[in-house]
Amino acid sequence: MTQPRPRLVVLTAEGTPRPCNEAALQELADVRWATAADLEPALRGADVLLSWDFLSTALRDAWGAADALRWVHVAAAGVDAMLFDALAESSVVLTNSRGVFDQPIAEFVLASVLAHDKRLHESKDLQREHRWVHREVTRSAGQHVLVVGTGAIGRACGRLLQSVGLTVRGAGRREVTGDPDLGDIVLTSALAEHVGWADHVVLTAPLTPETRHVVSGAVLAAMKPTAHLVNVGRGALVDETALVAALQAGEIAAASLDVVETEPLPEASLLWDLPQVAISAHMCGDVVGWRDQLALLFEDNLRRYVAGEALLNQVDTRTGFPYRG
Question: What band does 43 get if pLDDT is binned at 50, 70 and 90?
Fold first, then answer.
């Protein structure tokens, strides 16, 4: 059954381009544009919120004004900014942009693994210094990768890493034997018991109360001294203070960090100057055209909403994981 014309609020950030399909959204709904500063008045009477500023926690602060809200869509795979009690206890449906970033992030993870094994970061440093230093590199095929996070992104990583000869296991909320994408899946809650197997530990899990600092000092201490940590999930999956200490002490060999606990990474952070660390600016899935894909995915869901059809990519508001019914 067709719904009444939606009242849509689009939460944006200063300087962020608007969705490419702005005209189509305005045809489907009465659109209000808001930033965090003016979200509260914009929310009154609105039934749909598009969080185009996906890291914003403004809805939590403006929740009291959400008097008609029925659906929140986040323009990202991670929905940690929306995991607050009032939303979880409401009947509001939460959806995300699952599927847009899977393959690009998997490619970035593979690149990070290869760059570490082939010592490409060192080569660039030596080139900058005009130094010709012969070194041996590591064969990637046959190495072990533990992918923490068994959702669509983790599975894309598992498939791509296996395709070039790495042996993959997963870590998730349920134990599984012989998963086609991730091999044997162990419990994330017992991560310290399993990380010693891995040459590379890849973090793709969403940030939830259960996964915050899942890579703790104890987990880092259990890793191989030659191990490489890759984080493409959320910065707070890792205890950053413990990570710095582990790198300084040689408990692990290296880290490739696309995400950090505080973004942008503060200038004073010790991570900047650790030679074993490769830092990128939360960009691993942002291939050319990514914003357009996000916009079109939301438009498809908005058309479903208008038609009274089931929404795609529903997320459990209590756990932050895909809804399983």
Answer: very high
